[in-house]
């Protein structure tokens, strides 16, 4: 099942993102469930994340999201998990 994780950073939290980026990228590598990922950009700065998870079910996506180093560091203001269907690409 593909699930889009759409997360918006808390205002003024760019340094939290930068401080935890290495751990976040390692988590992506270790877990092996990320199909695509990248930062959301506003006014030229990273302001959130879009991560496409390829997981067994929503519970697995929720667990992945909760254990993401960005989430543990308190980076996100809002996180959405939405089932996603790949059509192109």
Could you report the average pLDDT, rounded to the nearest whole number? 97
Which structural class is indicated by helix and strand composition?
alpha+beta
As for the CATH topology, it is Alpha-Beta Plaits
Report strand order across the widest sheet. Answer: 2-3-1-4
CATH class: Alpha Beta
Instruction: Tell me the CATH superfamily.
Output: Dimeric alpha+beta barrel
Give a structural overview.
- With 89 residues, the chain is an alpha+beta fold.
- The chain has one domain: Dimeric alpha+beta barrel (Alpha-Beta Plaits).
- It has a four-stranded antiparallel β-sheet with strand order 2-3-1-4, with helices on one face.
Offer a quick outline of the entry.
The chain has 89 residues and is α+β, with helices and mostly antiparallel strands.
Keywords:
89 residues; alpha+beta; Alpha-Beta Plaits; 4-stranded antiparallel beta sheet; 39% strand
Secondary structure layout plus pairing:
Blueprint: E1 2-9, H1 14-31, E2 34-42, E3 45-54, H2 58-67, H3 69-72, E4 76-83
Antiparallel strand pairs: 1-3, 1-4, 2-3
